[in-house]
């Protein structure tokens, strides 16, 4: 039976995972890509190489973010976040975001793939957060 997740269940699901999908407006519709993330104080923190996704978020900062847990077609949970892209500015804030992401990924070096398969280290990436404005969740069979 389909049901809505409570705010607590949504927070727990977001906290259990490290990868989700971000949806960004573009001139032709919507651009959706996977991203690694961490959550803190009502915001989703992430990073990206300079490129199409960052360009679009700077143009149209209202974004959506989704995380799923899927056991099978009858047993799943999903959280949808609507929010606003903010580029992390200032060295202190950037350092905090970097540390948050490294901690979330258990100290593993965090890098992103730029165009043509080139890798960009976290120190050189665009750091951003999505301020959560609306969070909803649904579940089926769980």
Low-confidence stretches: 111-118
Please give the oligomerization state of what you see: single chain
Question: Which whole number gives the mean pLDDT?
Answer: 89
- Helical stretch tally: 3
How far do the termini sit from each other?
8 Å
Proportion of beta-strand residues: over 45%
From the alpha carbons, calculate the radius of gyration and give it in angstroms: 15 Å
CATH superfamily: Electron Transport, Fmn-binding Protein, Chain A
CATH architecture: Roll
What is the structure about, briefly put?
23% of the residues lie in helices and 51% in strands.
What does the model show?
This protein has 142 residues and is α+β, with helices and mostly antiparallel strands. The protein has a single domain, classed as Pnp Oxidase, Chain A. Helix content is 23%, strand content 51%. It contains three helices and ten strands. The strands form two sheets. Strands 1, 2, 3, 4, 5, 6, 7 and 10 form an eight-stranded antiparallel β-sheet that branches. The chain is globular. The relative contact order is 0.26. Residues 111-118 have low confidence and may be disordered.
List keywords for this structure.
single chain; alpha+beta; Pnp Oxidase, Chain A; eight-stranded antiparallel β-sheet; 10 strands; 51% strand
What topology emerges from the helices and strands here?
Elements: E1 2-4, H1 7-16, E2 19-26, E3 29-36, E4 38-40, E5 43-48, H2 52-59, E6 62-72, E7 75-87, H3 91-104, E8 111-113, E9 119-121, E10 126-140
Antiparallel strand pairs: 1-10, 2-3, 2-6, 4-5, 5-10, 6-7, 7-10, 8-9
């Amino acid at each position: 039976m389909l049901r809505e997740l409570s705010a607590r269940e949504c927070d727990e699901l977001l906290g259990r995972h490290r990868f989700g999908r971000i949806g960004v407006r573009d001139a032709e519709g919507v651009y959706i890509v996977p991203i690694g993330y961490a959550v803190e104080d009502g915001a989703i923190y992430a990073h990206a190489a300079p490129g199409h996704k960052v360009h679009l978020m700077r143009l149209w900062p209202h974004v959506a973010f989704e995380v799923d847990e899927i056991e099978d077609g009858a047993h799943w949970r999903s959280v949808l976040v609507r929010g606003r892209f903010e580029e992390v500015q200032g060295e202190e804030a950037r350092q905090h975001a970097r540390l948050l992401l490294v901690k979330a990924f258990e100290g593993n070096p965090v890098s992103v793939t730029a165009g043509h398969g080139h890798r960009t280290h976290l120190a050189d990436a665009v750091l951003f957060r999505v301020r959560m404005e609306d969070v909803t969740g649904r579940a089926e069979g769980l």
